[in-house]
Design a protein that fits this description.
The protein is α/β, with parallel strands linked by helices. It has two domains: 8-164, NAD(P)-binding Rossmann-like Domain (Rossmann fold, 3-Layer(aba) Sandwich), CATH 3.40.50.720; 171-292, N-(1-d-carboxylethyl)-l-norvaline Dehydrogenase, domain 2 (Orthogonal Bundle). It contains 14 helices and nine strands. The strands form two sheets. A six-stranded parallel beta sheet has the order 3-2-1-4-5-6, sandwiched between helices. It has a three-stranded mixed beta sheet with strand order 7-8-9. The radius of gyration is 20 Å and the shape is globular. The chain starts with 7 loop residues before the first strand and ends in an 11-residue tail after the last helix. The mean pLDDT is 95.
Amino acid sequence: MSGERPRIAFIGLGRMGEPMAECLLRAGYHVTGQDAVPGRAAAFAVRTGAEAVATPADAIAAADAIITMLPSSKEVAQVIEQSLHAFQDGQLLLEMSSGAPATTRHLGTLVSPRGVAMIDAPVSGGVSRAKDGTLAIMAGGEDQDLDRATPILQAMSTTIHRVGGLGAGQAMKALNNMVSAAGFLAGIEALLIGQRFGLDPARMVDVLNASTGMTNSSQKKFKQFVLSRRFDSGFGLDLMLKDLGIAVDLARQTETAVPLSSHTRELAAAAVAQLGHGRDHTEFARLSELLAGTELKARENLP
């Protein structure tokens, strides 16, 4: 990579990618943006002063480092396979999507003969933390490649966990989201039981947050997005289902029995089937409400 501030191609300027790319710009990097949605990269360039190009290959050819931040490994594979000719010796590819580890490892074997190093570095923290550059990153790859990537990752995050070889970051991300989804569902069921018993769900959340039942969902989701009925956290139910599928696939590959995780994944699939695509992941609560025949309602005013 050239100089202290390598030229970065950022492919995927969606809800997470756009604020992440802005963090890189604020850190002084030259960023070339590209997105499959017509006009999105151009609008980003006008607003931020970044450069915009029409195709992934155009972005890759002019970059020292390439970041992919796309919905799934399917889109990442399409970009890399169709743009393989544009990769050049000495480049660093940072796959930051929440993808499938096996696919990422395969893609690594495609770019490696061209002299391109690859790491995976999925993120956790949502849109708000993407905007202020405080994401948590789970990184996988060779140590020397992670060393090269660290300054770039630090511009978008406050915590970087090195968890293993290529694909390990995505495995950790899927497993993290599996734990989060199961905890969310257990908490919603507890609120439904309590409400039917006569407890105020909002007061229950306060107790959970002062007790051993505290979770990220009780702290940052139940009042904010479920009891408020806003359901606008910024992370999609479809993406949660994808991550649960990756986690269950990892269980199959490792021959690990995971009845709870498998059931959580099936319930998420049922929620998508019942509610439709494009829903916020906090609307997972609606499935539990439908099954219970009860809608959660706070008795006291929410903050």
